[in-house]
Specification:
- It catalyses: cytidine(1402) in 16S rRNA + S-adenosyl-L-methionine = 2'-O-methylcytidine(1402) in 16S rRNA + S-adenosyl-L-homocysteine + H(+).
- The structure is a single chain.
- The protein is an alpha/beta fold.
- It has 11 helices and 11 strands.
- The protein folds into 3 domains: about 120 residues, Tetrapyrrole methylase, C-terminal domain (Methyltransferase, Cobalt-precorrin-4 Transmethylase, Domain 2), CATH 3.30.950.10; about 110 residues, 3-Layer(aba) Sandwich (Cobalt-precorrin-4 Transmethylase, domain 1), CATH 3.40.1010.10; about 45 residues.
- β3, α2 and β4 form a beta-alpha-beta unit.
Length: about 350
């Protein structure tokens, strides 16, 4: 499908627009112990008086707890994550100011506990301290700055070290920019690949994208606002200008926007456009590629182990970009042979 890229503001207009008035549930800064800190990770707190979180009575299980934290709207934190923050013996965070601000918004007292900074630059020094706490049977909470730990965020080496030492590793799932973007993109969600950030240099970026172009799955990338135009231009070269995509900006925040359309149209739209905020790019899978008989048969056999014949044929046709009737007939023949 081709056509004009259509930005879809999901909340309200950009600042300075005539229609940029806060909605009834607008998120406003909160006063309190962290009010003197700069805005942390774009967190938007709820309006109204501050409350104190009442944690569950059940004690927090010993082990390393990875916590997903809001990517914008502070109310996206889960009750379980708040329980863990309230009851953990030790708390570690990619950005301590961000987590302190989040805890303050939700009335989770820190008490006499300390929040340790743990990130890519100090991991080797901090891991032994966290592992010692785990060895003592403590409950340790780790929170990334925004979103789910290990998804383009620190935590992998910490998790591996804890597992190798025989400690329990648990996850308190929650906000994820990857899944939020996939949900609103309108692109297939049955199979997807999160590839993170593209390389910064033009030649390396193009080679990297060319490896992703034939992948039979929806591709999800992160990008900075300063490089989004370069990325879209490179995507046109490697994926083709007709490939459908969505540029998702400021997800869950006040000026959330999703722009959908063919890559060529998106590249033209963002070429001279100054944008701000966190960006996720979602690109449709390779379509219309030639699949030989072996590819088709293997895909059908796999799908038929999980689905009825009609559903399997439809799924494979979608994945390989082939006509549904052609794939259905192949599935019938395969079923007859079996």
């Amino acid at each position: 499908m081709t056509g004009e890229a259509k930005p879809v503001p999901l909340n309200e207009s950009e600042p300075g627009s005539a229609s940029a008035e806060p909605p009834e549930d607008a998120i406003e800064p909160v006063e309190g112990t962290d009010a003197d800190l700069p805005p942390a990770a774009g967190l938007e707190a709820s309006p109204g008086p501050r409350h104190t979180h009442s944690p569950a009575l059940k004690p927090i299980e010993p082990g390393l707890h990875f916590l997903a934290t809001p990517i914008g709207a502070a109310r996206d934190i889960t009750l379980r994550a708040l329980d863990i923050l309230a009851g953990a013996d030790l708390i570690a965070a990619e950005d301590t100011r961000t987590l302190r601000h989040l805890m303050d918004i939700h009335g989770v007292p820190l008490g006499d506990r300390q929040i340790l900074a743990y990130h890519d630059h100090n991991g080797e020094q901090m891991r032994p301290r966290i592992l010692r706490a785990l060895a003592m049977g403590k409950a340790v909470a780790y929170a990334s700055e925004a979103g789910t730990p290990l998804v383009a965020d620190p935590g992998y080496q910490l998790g591996r070290a804890a597992i190798e030492a025989g400690h329990k590793v648990l996850a308190a799932p929650g906000p994820s920019a990857v899944l939020a973007a996939l949900t609103v993109s309108g692109l297939p969600s049955d199979r997807f690949l999160f590839a993170g950030f593209a390389p910064s240099t033009a030649s390396a970026r193009l080679r990297w994208l060319e490896d992703l172009a034939p992948v039979a799955a929806t591709v999800i990338l992160y990008e900075s606002p300063k490089r989004i135009s370069d990325l879209l231009g490179a995507l046109v070269q490697s994926f083709g200008g007709e490939r459908e995509a969505a540029v998702c900006r400021e997800l869950t925040k006040r000026f959330e926007e999703v722009t959908r359309g063919p890559l060529a149209t998106l590249a033209a739209d963002f070429a001279d456009r100054a944008v701000k905020g966190e960006i996720v790019v979602v690109i449709d899978r390779a379509r219309g590629r030639k699949a030989d008989g072996a590819d088709l048969e293997a895909a059908l056999k796999d799908a038929l182990t999980r689905m009825r014949l009609k559903d399997a044929a439809a799924a494979v046709a979608e994945t390989l970009g082939l006509p549904k009737r052609e794939v259905y007939q192949a599935a019938l023949r395969l079923g007859t042979e079996d």
